[in-house]
Design goal:
It holds the Pfam family Y1_Tnp. It comes from Seinonella peptonophila. InterPro entries: Transposase_17, Transposase_17_sf. This is Transposase IS200 like. The chain has 84 residues and is of the alpha+beta class. It has a single domain, classed as Alpha-Beta Plaits (2-Layer Sandwich). It is 44% helix and 18% strand. A hairpin with a 4-residue loop joins β1 and β2. α1 packs antiparallel against α2. It is globular, with a radius of gyration of 13 Å.
């Protein structure tokens, strides 16, 4: 992922997080992954947020960045994308 894509992923995290009462505290990125430190409301279920974030971000990435079916499941750079 390049810097523009990482910033889009960060903004998606912020947007979706606000719906789940999750606040982004710190966002660091490396060549092929990101590290996130966040704060959540005690009643927030992190697993539901992560599942929704993975589904939503995957749809956006597929819609905007993948050009052929042969690339499905991989980022445009060919790297696998994992969200923990």
């Amino acid at each position: 992922m390049n810097l523009v894509n990482k910033e889009k992923a960060k903004q998606m995290f912020i947007d979706i997080g606000s719906k789940y009462h999750i606040t982004l505290i710190e966002w660091n990125h490396d060549q092929d992954h990101v590290h996130v430190l966040s704060k959540a409301h005690p009643k927030t279920e992190p697993s539901k947020f992560i599942n929704y974030y993975k589904i939503y971000s995957s749809r956006i990435i597929n819609k905007n960045f993948l050009t052929s079916k042969s690339n499905c499941g991989r980022s445009p750079s060919g790297l696998e994308v994992f969200v923990f």
